[in-house]
Amino acid sequence: MQKTDTIGNIIRHHREESKMPLRKLAYKLDIDQSTLSKIERDERKINPELLDKISDIFNIKIEDLQVAYHSDTVAYQISDLESFSKILKVAEKKVEYIRQSKPS
39 versus 82: which is more confidently predicted? Predict the structure, then answer.
């Protein structure tokens, strides 16, 4: 897997690698098969509450799934903006400031 893989690509890769049919994973996640298909094709956002289940099913680090999910969210929100690079740099500084400002 690559860092640029979307959450849908990651799920599809692990499902196919384990030879699990789409319907079986959909059942385990308690979602409709067509919904899972759309998630895997990046046509629909996944409910972040499903990340823990996916982590358990495929033995994937939850942090890796969270990074993919949240980076997808940010990328889709700012991909059409000319200043996306500047936005990311400023956001990184703001995150650092927020973390430093929090009481220990």
Answer: 39
Residue 7 has pLDDT above 60, yes or no: yes
Whole-number pLDDT of residue 76: 86
Whether 1 contacts 14, CB under 8 Å: no
Q: What is the DSSP string of 14-83?
A: HHHHTT--HHHHHHHHTS-HHHHHHHHTTSSPPPGGGHHHHHHHHT--HHHHHHHHHHHHHHHHHTT-TT
Angstrom distance (rounded) from CA 6 to CA 45: 10
- Integer angstrom CA distances of residue 61 from 43, 44, 67, 79: 24, 22, 10, 27
Residue 28 vs residues 36, 53, 101: alpha-carbon distances, Å: 11, 8, 41
Residue with tokens 């400031």: 97
